[in-house]
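Attaching the record inline, Q. Sequence:
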Amino acid sequence: MPDDNCYICIETLVPPMPDAGDPLWEKAPKAELHEVVSGKTPFLATEFRLVRDDSQGALFLRFLAEDDEVRSTFRLNDECLYRQDVFELFIAEKDNERGYYEIEVSPYDLHFTGTVLYKGPGQLKLDMDWDIPGFMTRTGFHRENYQTGSVWRIPYAAFLNPPRTGAEWRANLFRIDHSRRGEELQAWQATGEANFHVPERFGRICFS
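Structure, as predicted:
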Protein backbone atom coordinates (compact mmCIF):
# COMPACT_ATOMS: atom_id res chain seq x y z
CA MET A 1 0.00 0.00 0.00
CA PRO A 2 1.22 3.55 -0.70
CA ASP A 3 2.49 5.55 2.25
CA ASP A 4 0.33 8.69 2.31
CA ASN A 5 2.76 10.28 4.77
CA CYS A 6 5.74 9.97 2.40
CA TYR A 7 6.08 11.88 -0.87
CA ILE A 8 8.60 10.29 -3.25
CA CYS A 9 10.67 13.10 -4.80
CA ILE A 10 12.40 11.77 -7.91
CA GLU A 11 15.55 13.19 -9.51
CA THR A 12 15.21 14.09 -13.20
CA LEU A 13 16.28 16.66 -15.78
CA VAL A 14 14.13 19.79 -15.56
CA PRO A 15 14.03 22.94 -17.74
CA PRO A 16 15.54 25.97 -15.96
CA MET A 17 12.03 27.30 -15.23
CA PRO A 18 9.25 24.97 -16.42
CA ASP A 19 5.67 26.01 -17.12
CA ALA A 20 2.79 24.63 -15.09
CA GLY A 21 1.75 22.60 -18.14
CA ASP A 22 5.17 21.11 -18.90
CA PRO A 23 4.97 17.32 -19.50
CA LEU A 24 7.78 16.76 -16.98
CA TRP A 25 5.26 17.06 -14.11
CA GLU A 26 3.65 13.80 -15.22
CA LYS A 27 6.84 12.02 -14.08
CA ALA A 28 6.19 13.07 -10.49
CA PRO A 29 3.59 11.55 -8.15
CA LYS A 30 0.46 13.63 -7.62
CA ALA A 31 -0.46 14.50 -4.04
CA GLU A 32 -3.68 16.24 -3.02
CA LEU A 33 -4.43 18.73 -0.27
CA HIS A 34 -7.24 18.14 2.22
CA GLU A 35 -9.30 20.19 4.64
CA VAL A 36 -6.79 21.07 7.35
CA VAL A 37 -8.80 20.00 10.41
CA SER A 38 -10.73 16.94 9.27
CA GLY A 39 -8.63 15.70 6.35
CA LYS A 40 -11.77 15.56 4.20
CA THR A 41 -12.03 16.58 0.54
CA PRO A 42 -12.00 20.41 0.25
CA PHE A 43 -14.51 22.43 -1.78
CA LEU A 44 -11.84 23.30 -4.37
CA ALA A 45 -9.25 20.69 -5.33
CA THR A 46 -5.52 21.40 -5.00
CA GLU A 47 -2.64 19.14 -5.98
CA PHE A 48 1.13 19.42 -5.86
CA ARG A 49 4.05 17.66 -7.52
CA LEU A 50 7.71 17.88 -6.53
CA VAL A 51 10.89 16.89 -8.37
CA ARG A 52 14.58 17.71 -8.09
CA ASP A 53 17.39 18.23 -10.58
CA ASP A 54 20.81 17.62 -9.03
CA SER A 55 22.58 18.98 -12.13
CA GLN A 56 20.92 22.36 -11.53
CA GLY A 57 21.00 21.99 -7.75
CA ALA A 58 17.32 22.82 -7.32
CA LEU A 59 13.95 21.54 -6.15
CA PHE A 60 10.95 22.20 -8.39
CA LEU A 61 7.42 22.39 -6.97
CA ARG A 62 4.11 22.85 -8.77
CA PHE A 63 0.75 23.65 -7.18
CA LEU A 64 -2.32 23.29 -9.40
CA ALA A 65 -5.59 24.48 -7.86
CA GLU A 66 -9.22 24.87 -8.80
CA ASP A 67 -10.07 28.52 -8.26
CA ASP A 68 -13.23 30.56 -8.76
CA GLU A 69 -11.76 33.92 -7.72
CA VAL A 70 -8.52 35.46 -6.46
CA ARG A 71 -8.41 37.48 -3.26
CA SER A 72 -5.03 39.08 -2.69
CA THR A 73 -4.33 42.78 -2.24
CA PHE A 74 -0.68 42.55 -1.21
CA ARG A 75 1.85 44.02 -3.62
CA LEU A 76 5.18 43.67 -1.77
CA ASN A 77 7.31 40.67 -0.87
CA ASP A 78 7.30 39.62 2.80
CA GLU A 79 3.95 41.24 3.55
CA CYS A 80 1.50 39.08 5.52
CA LEU A 81 0.58 36.99 2.47
CA TYR A 82 -0.93 34.29 4.73
CA ARG A 83 -3.89 36.57 5.47
CA GLN A 84 -5.21 36.13 1.93
CA ASP A 85 -4.94 33.60 -0.91
CA VAL A 86 -1.56 31.86 -0.81
CA PHE A 87 0.36 28.60 -1.33
CA GLU A 88 2.76 27.53 1.41
CA LEU A 89 5.57 25.05 2.03
CA PHE A 90 6.97 24.26 5.48
CA ILE A 91 10.08 22.10 5.21
CA ALA A 92 12.66 20.86 7.72
CA GLU A 93 15.95 19.19 6.88
CA LYS A 94 16.39 15.75 8.42
CA ASP A 95 14.12 15.18 11.42
CA ASN A 96 14.41 18.62 12.95
CA GLU A 97 10.73 19.56 12.82
CA ARG A 98 11.25 22.04 15.67
CA GLY A 99 13.14 24.29 13.25
CA TYR A 100 11.78 24.63 9.74
CA TYR A 101 11.60 26.92 6.73
CA GLU A 102 8.39 28.71 5.79
CA ILE A 103 7.98 29.64 2.11
CA GLU A 104 4.85 31.29 0.69
CA VAL A 105 3.82 32.51 -2.76
CA SER A 106 0.73 34.59 -3.54
CA PRO A 107 -1.39 34.43 -6.72
CA TYR A 108 0.47 37.57 -7.85
CA ASP A 109 3.84 35.84 -7.50
CA LEU A 110 4.91 37.62 -4.33
CA HIS A 111 7.21 35.81 -1.88
CA PHE A 112 7.30 35.40 1.89
CA THR A 113 10.27 33.52 3.35
CA GLY A 114 11.40 32.91 6.89
CA THR A 115 12.64 30.37 9.42
CA VAL A 116 10.51 29.13 12.29
CA LEU A 117 11.71 27.96 15.70
CA TYR A 118 8.84 25.98 17.22
CA LYS A 119 8.87 25.57 20.99
CA GLY A 120 5.33 24.27 21.49
CA PRO A 121 1.67 25.10 20.73
CA GLY A 122 1.36 28.85 20.30
CA GLN A 123 5.09 29.27 20.98
CA LEU A 124 7.09 29.96 17.87
CA LYS A 125 9.61 32.49 16.67
CA LEU A 126 9.60 33.64 13.05
CA ASP A 127 12.84 35.06 11.62
CA MET A 128 12.25 36.84 8.33
CA ASP A 129 15.91 37.67 7.72
CA TRP A 130 16.18 34.39 5.81
CA ASP A 131 16.05 34.73 2.02
CA ILE A 132 16.52 32.22 -0.80
CA PRO A 133 19.18 33.22 -3.35
CA GLY A 134 17.86 32.55 -6.86
CA PHE A 135 14.34 31.62 -5.75
CA MET A 136 12.09 31.83 -8.83
CA THR A 137 8.33 31.40 -9.18
CA ARG A 138 5.73 31.61 -11.90
CA THR A 139 2.14 31.95 -10.66
CA GLY A 140 -1.08 32.93 -12.39
CA PHE A 141 -4.86 32.62 -12.35
CA HIS A 142 -6.33 31.24 -15.58
CA ARG A 143 -9.90 32.47 -15.75
CA GLU A 144 -10.78 30.37 -18.80
CA ASN A 145 -10.53 27.12 -16.82
CA TYR A 146 -10.82 28.50 -13.28
CA GLN A 147 -7.40 27.31 -12.22
CA THR A 148 -4.39 28.81 -10.48
CA GLY A 149 -0.96 27.34 -11.15
CA SER A 150 2.21 28.10 -9.21
CA VAL A 151 5.66 26.75 -10.15
CA TRP A 152 8.62 27.19 -7.78
CA ARG A 153 12.34 26.76 -8.32
CA ILE A 154 14.13 26.45 -4.96
CA PRO A 155 17.94 26.27 -5.24
CA TYR A 156 19.76 23.88 -2.93
CA ALA A 157 21.64 26.96 -1.66
CA ALA A 158 18.54 27.69 0.43
CA PHE A 159 19.38 24.75 2.69
CA LEU A 160 22.23 23.84 4.99
CA ASN A 161 22.71 20.59 3.07
CA PRO A 162 21.42 19.58 -0.36
CA PRO A 163 18.92 16.71 -0.51
CA ARG A 164 20.53 13.34 -1.19
CA THR A 165 19.16 10.05 -2.44
CA GLY A 166 17.86 8.12 0.53
CA ALA A 167 17.38 11.22 2.71
CA GLU A 168 14.03 12.10 4.28
CA TRP A 169 12.96 15.62 5.23
CA ARG A 170 9.88 16.61 7.20
CA ALA A 171 7.39 18.87 5.38
CA ASN A 172 3.82 20.00 4.95
CA LEU A 173 2.18 21.94 2.13
CA PHE A 174 -0.79 24.25 2.39
CA ARG A 175 -3.23 26.47 0.58
CA ILE A 176 -5.35 29.33 1.92
CA ASP A 177 -8.33 30.24 -0.26
CA HIS A 178 -10.75 33.12 0.29
CA SER A 179 -14.05 33.55 -1.52
CA ARG A 180 -17.65 34.53 -0.90
CA ARG A 181 -17.96 31.18 0.89
CA GLY A 182 -15.40 32.34 3.46
CA GLU A 183 -11.91 31.04 4.21
CA GLU A 184 -10.80 27.49 3.43
CA LEU A 185 -7.57 26.06 4.86
CA GLN A 186 -6.01 23.09 3.08
CA ALA A 187 -3.06 20.87 3.97
CA TRP A 188 -1.26 17.85 2.57
CA GLN A 189 -1.15 16.35 6.07
CA ALA A 190 -4.18 17.45 8.10
CA THR A 191 -3.17 19.03 11.40
CA GLY A 192 -6.42 18.43 13.31
CA GLU A 193 -6.86 22.14 13.98
CA ALA A 194 -7.20 25.42 12.08
CA ASN A 195 -3.47 25.97 12.37
CA PHE A 196 -0.61 25.16 10.00
CA HIS A 197 2.12 25.30 12.65
CA VAL A 198 1.72 21.75 13.95
CA PRO A 199 5.11 20.21 13.06
CA GLU A 200 4.38 16.85 14.68
CA ARG A 201 1.85 16.35 11.84
CA PHE A 202 4.38 17.00 9.07
CA GLY A 203 4.76 14.35 6.41
CA ARG A 204 8.03 13.21 4.85
CA ILE A 205 9.72 14.13 1.58
CA CYS A 206 11.57 10.96 0.58
CA PHE A 207 14.34 11.60 -1.97
CA SER A 208 14.56 8.63 -4.33
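The chain has a mean pLDDT of 95. The chain has no helices and 14 strands.

More tomorrow.
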